[in-house]
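User: what does the whole thing look like in 3D?
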Amino acid sequence: MASRRSFVGLLVLFAALAAKAHANDPAAVPECPTSPAAEQPTSNNVRLVTGSPYSALGISQTVTTLPDGHRIVRQNTIRQWRDSEGRTRSEFSLSTIGGTRPLELNTTVTVIDDPEVRERYLLQSSNKVAVTMPIVPCRVNAGLEPDLSVGPPRPAGLPMNVTAPVKLGQRNVNGETAAGSRVEATIPAGAIGNEKPINMSAEQWYGKNLQVVVEATYRDPRTGETRYKLSNIHRAEPDAKLFQVPDNYTKRPAVAPAPKHR
Amino acid sequence: MTIQDPHPHLALLLKQYARDLAQSAPSSHLDARIDHLVAGHLQISAPVPLQRRRRVAFYAAAAAFAALAIGAGIFIGMRLEQSRAGFAAAQTGAHDTLWPSADLTMWPTDSVLFKIPAEYSAKGTLVAVDPDSKHGSTRYWIDVVVSNDGTFRIEQVVPAYSTQKNGGHDGVAP
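Assistant: Here's the predicted 3D structure for the full assembly of 436 residues, as structure tokens:
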């Protein structure tokens, strides 16, 4: 009788394992959409890159030159970590975010993405709260760089003509083989009261091994030129504690905003 | 009831039957035929031992249950997958007004969207403030997108009172 019970127990266990195995099967992680035109974007989509740990420092510097010749220089940094399992930690040290209305932040935001549990943790150091939100891991073809198909950031609804991405070949960036792409975009004359077309461009160099952007240049005459570069790249496995919510933090689910009435 | 004096005709028939019965003898092959028939019947439908029959029935039921359980396991796994995707889709639906596809610089990218409370300073610039502090002036929620491709941008600026009416926020305090 005991053997029959254990046999049935094994069957139940096998069924549970079958369910879990399907949910965690790498093949069950869908491929990332290749372009926003192909699929509605999901802000929950998180690229899953496994087996390629690293840590690095990204520096983004925006220089705006005023008509009288004055220059405004703003700098933001991103410290990045990724472990072999694909978990990531990003610490965004934000001073000012440019735009038609610049935002002075002077704060650091820490974000941990854990694809295994499909959660994103946004750490709020001021009140020791980790805001949690669901994420959907997706995989990208390691041999392909992302499709740079949309162009520089712009307000929604602004008419803009965007060229097809131009391949710039490959070059070495800080020891990383990177593939370059470039798109150009134009706001037609008169769209925002401009007498002449406004030309913008975005150029990105994508590390084929790291599978992250290692260098980028964005030019927009309205806000200036932004240069981004990834440096201090280390391939060692980061400390596992970096990807855990500190014990003294309270987890709280994010409050989804109510849909707007249209 | 006994018959003392049967009818003469009946008495005659009884005497003849008694005589025939006394003269009859069993066939010499009868026992062999009966033995053969009984042996053949045993060979055709020999009863399976009860214990063996139970064991076969148990394993048949177990195999059917295993197939059912595996199917249920895969089904549950698929439903889990779909429910996650569905929840994500629901979340996306709530966010789509904050994340129009036309505003992405690269796809896919590693971006984070969060809200920051801010007020205008005396210099006329938007400055992030503590969400728990008292309002010095009109407060706004700034939707900010920061990405690992070096892009930082303000997605939209919404007066705080309308955000409160629309279901709260997850602000990041400076």
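In plain terms: Residues 36-42, 147-154, 258-262 of chain A have pLDDT under 50 and may be disordered. Chain A touches chain B through 94 residues (CB under 8 Å).
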